[in-house]
Write a structure and sequence with these properties.
Layout: H1 4-17, E1 22-26, H2 29-40, E2 44-50, E3 57-62, E4 76-78, E5 87-88, E6 102-107, E7 110-113, H3 114-120, E8 124-130
């Protein structure tokens, strides 16, 4: 697999389109950080890291509107990819839907949202947009 983060996002997207309650994804440290950010920002209901002797798994409980069953994540899109990395400096960090969505970034101080990177005044690689 050449792009595990794209696979992670695709598994989330497919599970939401199929209206699954829980999705299991192979774990890595970047995927765990992205999951933590999605939980903190209210895009997923809950998550659990299961350690495995080989790789480990992430179980994510997806969040839907209680009456209409519309997913909390309307769109999740990969920005930087292995063939074309997208880096942003501290002065031109992306805004997703004028601040209604988030951009998840990989910085020198770890994986964080665009708002946290703006507060810390650091740039980095833009991993994905979520809204």
């Amino acid at each position: 697999m050449t792009d595990p983060i794209a696979d992670y996002l695709t598994r989330l997207r497919n599970a939401m389109m199929a209206r699954h309650k829980i999705v299991e994804i192979p774990a890595s440290s970047v995927k765990k950080d992205i999951t933590r950010i999605l939980f903190e920002k209210g895009y997923v209901l809950n998550y659990k890291f299961e350690d495995d002797p080989v790789q480990g798994r992430i179980k994510i409980a997806l969040k839907y509107h209680p009456e209409t069953r519309v997913p909390a994540i309307k769109s999740i899109r990969r920005v930087s990819r292995p063939g074309l990395r997208q880096y942003r400096g501290k002065d031109n960090l992306p805004r997703v839907l004028n601040g209604l969505g988030i951009a998840i970034m990989s910085t020198s101080q770890g994986v964080m949202s665009d708002k946290e990177a703006r507060q810390k005044s650091i740039g980095g690689e833009v991993l994905c947009y979520v809204y």
